Amino acid sequence: MAHRRGNNAIIVVMLLFCMLVFHFEITHATTYDVGGAAGWNINVSNWTSGKTFKSGDILG
Predict the structure, then answer these.
(1) Domains in the chain: boundaries
(2) Cβ-proximal residues to 60 (8 Å cutoff; 6+ apart), any chain
(3) What is the model's pLDDT at position 43?
(4) How does DSSP assign 17-55, residue by residue?
(5) Residue 58 three-state SS
(6) How many Cα neighbours within 13 Å face the side chain of 12?
(7) First CA to last CA across the chain, in angstroms?
(8) Start and end of every Phytocyanin domain (predicted)?
(9) Minimal CA–CA distance to 39: which of 27, 47, 31?
(10) pTM for the full model?
(11) Mean pLDDT of 34-42
(12) Measured distance CA(55)–CA(43) in Å, rounded
């Protein structure tokens, strides 16, 4: 009986860890306004300087 309880505890800890990892992956998405405060225009070539884009980011 004690062995079974130990296995259940390991499963619960693993599930909590997975939920934590997926939560942090989702919350790291960022929304960027292309061109910054100036908005969209023809000269946005330098706008990306200093930015690191990740999967899930939104360009608007």
Answers:
(1) 2-40+55-59
(2) 31, 32, 33, 34
(3) 67
(4) HHHHHHHHHHHT--EE-TTGGG-S-S--TTTTTT----T
(5) strand
(6) 6
(7) 56
(8) 30-60
(9) 47
(10) 0.40
(11) 68
(12) 25
Contact 49, 23 (CB under 8 A): no
Return the sign of the alpha-carbon dihedral for residues 45, 50, 55, 60: negative
Q: Which residue would you say has higher pLDDT here, 36 or 27?
A: 36
pLDDT in the model for residue 55:
76
* Mean pLDDT value across residues 37-53: 73
**Contact indicator for 56, 29 with CB cutoff of 8 Å:** yes
For residue 30, CA distances in Å to 1, 5, 17, 33, 42 come to: 48, 41, 23, 10, 23
Q: Which two structure tokens, joined as six digits, stand for 54?
A: 């990740």
Q: Which residue has the higher pLDDT, 13 or 60?
A: 13
